[in-house]
Amino acid sequence: MIPRYLVDIDIDALPVVDTDVIVIGAGIAGLFTALRAAGEAQSVVLVTKKSLLDSNTRYAQGGIAAVISEDDSPEYHLQDTLVAGAGLCDREAVDVLVHEGPLGVEHLIRLGTQFDKENGEFALTQEGAHSQRRILHANGDATGYEIVRALSEKAISEPGIDVWDNHFVIDLVTADNVCYGAIVQRSNGERVFLRGKSTILCSGGAGQLYRYTTNPEVATGDGVAIAYRAGANIRDMEFTQFHPTALCYPGAPRFLISEAVRGEGAYLRNIKGERFMEKYHEQLELAPRDIVARAIVSEMEETKSTFVYIDITHQSEQLIKHRFPTIYQYCLAYGLDLTSDWIPVAPAMHYMMGGVQTDLHGETNIARLFACGEVSSTGVHGANRLASNSLSEAIVFGSRIVDRIVKLEPLEAMPSIVYKAERQPHAMQPFVERRLKLQKVMVRHTGLKRSRQGLQRGLEELNRQRAIFDTVLMEREEFEFANMLTCALLTTSSALYREESRGGHYREDFPHRDDERWCKHTIVNRNQDQLKEWIEYV
Q: Are residues 129 and 154 in the same domain?
């Protein structure tokens, strides 16, 4: 069984740092929520395991979805989200998103984010499964970087926020189902008890579970794993979004080719040069991501290729360079010209739809523990995230979390907590090798196409690595691997349990959606040590 804590602790023996609000993670969710809390006279410690510029948000290209145009409406946005979510969205959560998203965008602008404009109006684009042009973007295809730039500058200058760079959160500290803070390891190896009136997980997703991913190195599923060990409900981990179009070229990392490229009219072609999306969906290249990703894999299998092409060469050179300067320059560095070449692409792990279950104010089933952003499962995304809803979700629910935490009473005296387990020195196999082995298992057995036989094989291989939980862990890479293994086990177990195909979860042995039996969630809680069915939204 996965242990409650990864390290032995004696709370009374640790140095203590007190604050009102602990924010773990520094993407849009962490930065925005920290700034909102500081604006409500809350003292904040913002913990990031690298720096403020290392997060998934930084690499977000497409933009942020919000109803800005007079031709659009919250009802249109709601319906698009529900359709993409394949029956598992919480309608109330989506309603919150579509109505409060525009206010969140206004707040981002007040904090210094500069979105692109044309003729004095916000420049809006369209992405897959959106019925309207409602995606705001910045510097063409560098929206995430612009948001992080603006929020980071504000956070650094905000006296109410203490930024802890290069710190690692090992575990949450809980007693009697109340969260009191976290055990944090400093870069010099010293451990402290960071105690707070509220703790907010904003630690992002788990892209590094897979060998091919658009996510940065820091996306190792830490938030989900530490929440699971603390007893939080973890929901819908089988729903993994593989972005259809990541650069697939020798010597190049799997760089994201934004969905906005297809939104501006790009075609998908197989290696024979044939457009193929009409065989799979009436929305062609703008079908929901899960459908496009599986269509690409089907074409790759049929043509015995490792990639397909994305082709936007029929658009003007001016439009391409103006809208996609980052993608253009990145491809050019590898000898590929977006204006004249078809770009080889293949699916790659992109986003985790499941996560730590929360209510409509971001609170988990553990008192004083909240989650925001990709680490959370608010009910907005269902089985398949609608493009560009994630940035909106972070600011909407970040604001709602702050509305809740400012009303919390001060912490009462907490009990002494001592945890000690029998642990052995770990084997000498380098963790980089363990990590690569785990990633290969996930690609082979819990990837875009799944089956009972493959998932069972994957679980067997993952279970062989469980011994890591019984060893002495000291370094960040060791804690990260333990967190990755936890998330891999949760994802694979949940995928084996759900015997249907829906959204980002596709079973070759159960290829059809089954609303009669499976229009419900999977929830995992370590205190119950089993999956339980959570029948909702039927």
A: yes
Token duo for residue 7? 């390290």
Highest-confidence segment of 66-70, 142-146, 531-535? 66-70
One domain, residues 287 and 182: no
Helix/strand/coil for 221: coil
pLDDT digits (tens, 9 = 90+) for 54-70: 666 666 667 899 999 99
- CATH number of the domain enclosing 334: 3.90.700.10
For residues 115 and 107, is the Cβ–Cβ distance under 8 A?
Answer: no
Q: Which domain holds residue 329?
A: 243-349
| Residues 332 and 473 placed together within one structural domain of the fold | no
121-122 vs 16-24, strand pairing mode: unpaired
Q: What is the pLDDT of residues 113-130, one digit of tens each?
A: 999 999 999 999 888 788
Instruction: Mark 240-252 as b/e (b = at least 16 C-beta within 10 Å).
Output: bbbbbbbbbbeeb
The residue ranges of DSSP E strands in 233-388, in sequence order, are: 234-235, 240-247, 267-269, 308-311, 343-352, 355-357, 369-371, 376-377
* pLDDT computed for residue 127 by the predictor: 80
Interatomic CA distance for residues 35 and 398, integer angstroms: 10
pLDDT band at residue 529 using 50, 70 and 90 as cut-offs? low
Residue 176 covered by a domain:
yes
> 534 pLDDT exceeds 50?
no
- Report, in angstroms and rounded to the nearest whole number, the Rg of the chain calculated over CA atoms: 22
Instruction: Note the pLDDT of residue 22.
Output: 98
What per-residue confidence (pLDDT) applies to 538?
28
Confidence of residue 313 (pLDDT cuts 50, 70, 90): very high
In-domain check, residue 478:
yes
Query: 256-278 burial, b if ≥16 CB within 10 A, otherwise e?
Result: bbbbbbbbbebbbbbbeeeebbe
Query: What pLDDT is stored for residue 535 in this prediction?
Result: 37
**Domain end: 284, 316, 349, which one?**
349
**Beta strand 9-10 pairing with 418-419:** antiparallel
460 lies in a domain?
yes
First-to-last alpha carbon distance for the chain, in angstroms, is 33
CA–CA gap between residue 536 and residue 520 (Å, rounded) = 5
Show which of 302, 322, 349 is a domain's final residue: 349
Q: Please check whether residue 206 lies inside any domain of the structure.
A: yes
Looking at the DSSP assignment, which residues form a beta bridge with residue 124?
A: 136
CATH no. for residue 214? 3.50.50.60
Supply 237's token pair: 């981990």
Q: ∠ CA(72), CA(73), CA(74), 5° rounding?
A: 140
| CATH number, residue 519 | 1.20.58.100
Give the active site residues: 289
Residues 165 and 60 in one domain: yes
